[in-house]
Amino acid sequence: MLKSRAAVVTGSTSGIGLGVAEALAKAGADIMLNGFGDPAAIERERARLADRHGVNVLYDGADMTKPDQIRAMIAGATRAFGKVDILVNNAGIQHVSPIEDFPDEKWDAIIAINLSAIFHATKAAFKGMKERRFGRIINIASAHALVASPFKSAYVAAKHGVLGFTKTIALEGAEFGVTANAICPGYVKTPLVEKQIPDTAKARGMTEEDVIQKVILEAQPTKNFVRVEDVAALAVFLAGPHSASLTGAAFQIDGGWVAK
After folding, report:
1. pTM score, whole prediction
2. Across the strands, what pairs with 31?
3. Is residue 155 annotated as a catalytic residue, yes or no?
């Protein structure tokens, strides 16, 4: 389905990003991984993906708060693969705190990684996509791109911004075969979600188990976490040949959260 395509997936050393990278590789795309973690573990994942799926898999440790490193990553993928056809902007961080206690540095970091990094990566890849008249920009947003929750001011602001940016880029790429879409997952059981459980418990004065049952799963009528595999399958479809007329859209995969 994606044979001869090349993809960059930010924040892909774990969680949703790694799941998306695996699914794209399985569909035949060459992959540039990105993210933080233990170097040996990252190399094992890189080698595993390459061996299992018979594609080229590289890794770039670009810091998503550094625009020059983001640009260098896109340039490196272009040199290695000859092009970047698919850009999955997935890297993200979270912090949970009442606004009066919200650290300034956390706000700045969340906006930088969750929103500004998408601008820098897209800007770096967009010209080549337009010239080749093919591109798929897939932004991993959140249900929080559509609705808000308390104590997540920076994250909600950033994800709302991601959706607005996605719509704008969809319009700019529409005549050139370049699509831009946002995937809006609900709660997925990833390291990012697991790390925010104790912070949410503290902010709300609840136990961690109550946070899982009364906040996280209560938000989703299915009462289940969204599966990484389901998000990844949607990303593969949006990256493929049958999504040419799908652009500027927000795809909810949230167990019915936003339908309430």
Report:
1. 0.94
2. 7, 57
3. yes
